[in-house]
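pls ignore typos typing on phone
5'-deoxyadenosine + seq
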Amino acid sequence: MTERLAKGERLSKAEFIDLIVNREKVDREKLYALSRQFQHEHFGKRVFLRGLIEFSSFCRNDCLYCGIRRSNCNAERYRLTKEQIMSACELGHELGYRTFVLQGGEDMHYTGEVLEDIVRSIKKSFPDCAITLSVGERSTEDYKRWFDAGADRYLLRHETANEEHYKKLHPADLSLKHRMECLYELKDIGYQVGAGFMVGSPFQTPETLADDLLFLKDLEPHMIGIGPFIPHHDTPFANEKAGTVELTLFLLAIIRIMLPDVLLPATTALGTVAADGREQGILAGANVLMPNLSPKDVRGKYLLYDNKICTGEEAAECKACLDNRIKRIGYETVTDRGDSPRIRK
Ligand code: 5AD
Ligand code: FES
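k done
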């Protein structure tokens, strides 16, 4: 089946389910060799670094899995000012980063206008940099406004492409339909778009994963973020099991083979469930890392899940650490914009 995927053929839902259920019959070394072949073809042995700025831990939503959900009154809340965000970019720029990812909860303090001003200022000071926004479901008008101000990319994980599963992970005021509408809209506006999901989230099954893979094949996002679900102690899913490295690596490889030129991060969550999780992710086909650029004093407050790594390190330490880790597996980190091969803006 992986041979057919590699030829660009579309597998049926039943075939994807079968692939996932019977994955222990797939020779892993062969699978990763194939996914790396595609990775090398499109990107060489280069791993793109993105500077991640977690600029607000306020969120209006109440997703059951997330540590910064609205009803978690133990979560420490903070907002970075425009000046703090600009200094983080300045530090990042000195370290070589040419992509800044602005991620936050759905915090309406950052109105369309406020965030537009921040995007414009970053673009003005750092015209050679790409800006990625990751601030959730917002109005079409806001999405357009930020794009026109110079934002290049947008990350909005779909979380699960299965309607029933979506309802078990989210409160009733959120819908998969609207999430998907946002993703198609962002793509229409001209953003490089990232979708994705957690691996091993509660109630996930081979069927819901098959729906995820089919949805990704249809949407053809420029980026796909997947990482293991990790329970957060102050959420309704506190006692649920974390997703595994094994299934995450398998899915990274399948996604690389299915969408060969996609930008695919080895996530911090993967590095949290295993010490060498990110390196293993690269060797399974991932080609992006998103080290933290947030000021050190707020890092320990953006906690979506327990035991998150890199909350005590400085930005420069993470950069050096990653350069080393990536070199050791025979790859090199690169800090250029690293746009999707499918787009020229
Ligand atoms: N474990 C792993 N990933 C999580 N996210 C949110 N909560 C968790 C968790 N407990 C992911 C979601 C979200 C992204 C920013 O972080 O997929 O889209
Ligand atoms: Fe942050 Fe290694 S990447 S310490």
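The first strand starts at residue 46 and ends at 49. The radius of gyration is 19 Å. more later
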